[in-house]
Protein: Class I SAM-dependent methyltransferase
Amino acid sequence: MRIRNKEGNFLQQINLPGISWRHCTNRRIIKIWEHYKANGNIRISELGVINAIAADCEDGTNLFEIGTFDGRTSLNLAFSSPSNNSIYTLDLAPKMDTLFPLVSSEKHMVEKEKSGGRFNKYRKSDSSIISKIHQLFGDSASFDYSPYYTICSLVFVDGSHAYEYVLSDTYAAMKMVKKRGVIIWHDYGIWEGVTRALEEIEEKEKLGLKNIRGTSLVYLKTE
Structure:
């Protein structure tokens, strides 16, 4: 099956318009930390795009990540963003009940040994970077996001891939992002729940969601 943008790049047919990563950031020199990709991590190319956008964030603002997993993206956000930014990263607590059913094939990302496991190696060598990261625990569908409303320059949505969660996480992200801030979603075109939810939201809300070409990232910059 031929898919728009790149043959074989996606598992589902995608309908959101494409945008070059170069239109999302002015950065052209990008550094990446933690190159090793575990099952469940984003691709290096996607991490580079996110790092570039994080570097553009206004100093002193917050970045919010839904879905910590092993902390690889959280670390990169902390290293890449300006020095006075704070990174808040939300993950399920161990054995926590969820409001909506999870996709069975993503349970290994929930039943991990430790959330944010990659942080430990940097606690001594880069304590000022680790101090930017604030781990939060809860179900993203019932979490109280109100302290973060309208104050986040970047929100990265990479929690559960179940349709109901993507809808819920998306509306939470829209409340948290500040004016002229950015929301990025992961796994568009890869997980059916993500693809369906984002395309339905775009059809309903006309937000201007765009797929960053060559990636499974969806990008929105608010007015």
Remarks:
- The first helix runs from residue 44 to 55.
